[in-house]
């Protein structure tokens, strides 16, 4: 398991009974987590005095029950700064376990010894975009949600990257890649965080199990002659990390050589010393 254990402004204090207790800078949140199926004694008093708790509804969805939580606030990871805030469906706009991938990508970019062009697909609020740009690459950030792209631009500004070479694109990711192939534009690295299910701006339906293989095959068409890495994230339960590795072996390593690795992502749990699984990542890279 790749564990994101370098945080100072985020801490997974405890988890169990289908919930996690977290510290986001000075704010304490309780959020649902379907992986935490075990019992916990909940010794930490923050379980009872959390600043906000997300409560699921029996009819689907849910809502935040807030005490003293601000509308938004900032968290830092090294020299990166992000705005977080409570969103619908329990999210905060940041997945802290992804920090271990930010570190991986930043190291590859810094050690490349050449300019690196990164394509970030399903880019959300720009965690990977900010990390790659801070490491010195140019980035093309693509997401179908206009509000998420605006949030990502704010994260770039907060991290001192308002003048960095970042292209901000609001579009369906597959259609954008198809156009880039026609334009003969290429990228040295690709990172993608596709949803389990979603709809594009034109009503396009996305189902990960059906669309991921052809989508990665499509994206291989915009890789440069000397690509650096390809990274795929998945939060789809039931899709093993090795599936991502298999896809990368077939569609990228078969042409470019290099190395494929895959594993679960995890967050260290302060109360138990164990790690909570938080999705999966497959990586292809050249040494």
Mind explaining what this structure looks like?
It contains seven helices and 17 strands. By secondary structure, the protein is of the alpha/beta class. The mean pLDDT is 95.
Which spans have pLDDT < 50 for at least 5 consecutive residues?
none
Share of helix among residues? 25-40%
Biggest β-sheet strands, sense, barrel: 8 strands, mixed
Q: Given the helix and strand composition, which structural class is it?
A: alpha/beta
Global Rg:
19 Å
Number of helices: 7
- Give the strand line-up of the largest sheet: 1-16-17-15-12-9-10-11
Shape: globular
Terminal CA distance reads 21 Å
Structural descriptors:
287 residues; alpha/beta
What topology does this entry show?
Blueprint: E1 2-3, E2 10-16, E3 19-24, E4 27-32, H1 46-49, E5 52-56, E6 62-66, E7 73-77, E8 80-84, H2 99-110, E9 117-121, H3 127-134, E10 138-143, H4 146-158, E11 166-170, H5 173-183, E12 189-192, E13 197-199, E14 205-207, H6 208-219, E15 229-234, H7 241-256, E16 259-268, E17 275-285
Parallel strand pairs: 1-16, 4-5, 9-10, 9-12, 10-11, 12-15
Antiparallel strand pairs: 2-3, 3-4, 5-6, 7-8, 13-14, 15-17, 16-17
Helix pairs in contact: 2-3
């Amino acid at each position: 398991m790749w564990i994101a254990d370098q945080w100072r402004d985020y801490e997974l204090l405890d988890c169990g009974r289908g919930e996690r207790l977290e510290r986001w800078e000075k704010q304490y949140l309780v959020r649902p987590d379907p992986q935490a199926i075990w019992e916990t004694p909940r010794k930490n008093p923050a379980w009872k005095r959390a600043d906000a708790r997300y409560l699921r509804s029996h009819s689907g969805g849910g809502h935040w029950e807030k005490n003293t939580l601000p509308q938004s606030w900032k968290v830092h990871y090294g020299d990166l700064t992000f705005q977080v805030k409570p969103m619908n469906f329990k999210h905060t706009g940041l997945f802290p376990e992804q920090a271990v991938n930010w570190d991986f990508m930043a190291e590859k970019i810094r050690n490349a010894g050449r300019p690196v062009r990164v394509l970030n697909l399903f880019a959300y609020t720009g965690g990977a975009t900010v990390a790659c740009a801070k490491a010195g690459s140019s980035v093309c950030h693509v997401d179908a949600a206009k509000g998420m792209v605006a949030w990502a631009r704010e994260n770039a500004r907060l991290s001192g990257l308002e003048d960095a070479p970042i292209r901000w694109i609001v579009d369906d990711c597959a259609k954008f890649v198809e156009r880039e192939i026609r334009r003969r534009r290429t990228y040295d690295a690709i990172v993608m965080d596709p949803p389990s299910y979603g709809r594009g701006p034109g009503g396009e339906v996305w189902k990960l199990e059906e669309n991921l293989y052809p989508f990665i095959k499509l994206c291989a068409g915009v890789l440069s002659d000397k690509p650096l890495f390809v990274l795929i994230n998945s939060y789809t339960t039931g899709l093993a990390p090795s599936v991502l590795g298999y896809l990368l072996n077939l569609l990228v390593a078969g042409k470019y050589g290099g190395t494929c690795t895959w594993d679960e992502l995890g967050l260290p749990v302060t109360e138990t010393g164990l790690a909570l699984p938080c999705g999966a990542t497959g990586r292809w890279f050249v040494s």
